[in-house]
Design goal:
Layout lengths: L1 H6 L5 H24 L5 H7 E3 L2 H9 L4 E5 L19 E6 L5 H11 L5 E4 L3 H10 L4 E6 L11 E5 L2 E5 L2 H9 L2 E11 L2 E10 L9 H16 L23 E2 L2
Parallel strand pairs: 1-9, 2-5, 2-8, 3-4, 3-5, 6-10
Antiparallel strand pairs: 6-7, 8-9
């Protein structure tokens, strides 16, 4: 509720409570969908998670270019690994934060890596992607990119939902360093248990983009989705926890 009050100061308490109620219903669905991922059939998940324009991914694939697929904590980011079921001739990789409990970490890897996808812990991401690119291994790298950096690593700051917060710029740096296309995964919840995803290409020429263009565009696209249907964002995520912190030395403000 604190997060909702922060980002929607214009909404009444009644409106915020309605969003909160819908969000909790959606969050329960997400947990159930994650568990169901263990047993759901390929046919069923293809009915429930539709990709509207996979030809955009195939077009970039034809150019022999890898893709950084950016998304936020919005709608269903757990089922985006179903992309491998739609005839996409790419290696599928998911960047994830390792869970401390070894049992639950293995469970998360089994669920998220079910469709021939490979999970890469965040601490190994740069090294692994760089090695794959050097070895001509093309891939789609799914990244949930709206995480909040720790304050001692918070170098880059920008407005997200009209509140200044620290942001990660690692996806942009990787794209520029390795000349990878960057695509936003726009996921919409159609009804309970059913989603529609579309690909929005941010750039195919990252080295030619101005600094921070990729990062800014990602957050703009995510914010547009949140404002349209806020109940599907992960409001329990402490995204704005550093909003009142003094900016560390050498901080960069992204306008």
């Amino acid at each position: 509720m604190e997060n909702l009050q922060l980002v929607f100061p214009e909404k009444s308490n009644r409106e915020l409570k309605k969003i909160r109620k819908c969000f909790y219903s959606h969050m329960v669905d997400m947990f159930l969908e994650m568990v169901k991922s263990i047993t759901i059939s390929d046919t069923e998940i293809k009915k429930r998670f539709e990709f509207t324009n996979k030809e955009e991914i195939l077009r970039i694939r034809a150019e022999n270019q890898s893709i950084i697929l950016m998304c936020g904590h919005y709608a269903s980011y757990e089922w985006m690994n179903a992309l491998q079921l739609f005839g996409i001739d790419y290696g599928g990789f998911g960047i994830y934060k390792k869970v401390k409990n070894p049992y639950f970490d293995k469970l998360a890897r089994d669920i998220r890596g079910r469709y021939n996808g490979i999970l890469i812990p965040t601490v190994e991401a740069t090294r692994t992607i760089t090695r794959n690119e050097a070895n001509k291994i093309l891939g789609v790298y799914g990244m949930v990119a709206d995480q909040s950096p720790k304050i001692d690593r918070a170098r880059f700051w920008m407005d997200f939902m009209n509140i200044k917060v620290p942001v990660f710029t690692g996806s942009e740096k990787l794209a520029k360093d390795l000349d990878m296309a960057v695509v936003y995964l726009n996921v919409e919840k159609i009804k309970r248990g059913y989603y529609r995803a579309s690909f929005i290409t941010i750039t195919e020429n990252p080295k030619e983009e101005p600094d921070f263009h990729i990062t800014k565009t990602f957050f703009q696209l995510l914010e547009k989705q949140i404002r349209k249907a806020p109940e599907y964002y992960l409001w329990t995520h402490k995204r704005w926890k550093h909003r009142n912190e003094p900016l560390p030395r050498h901080s960069v403000i992204i306008d």
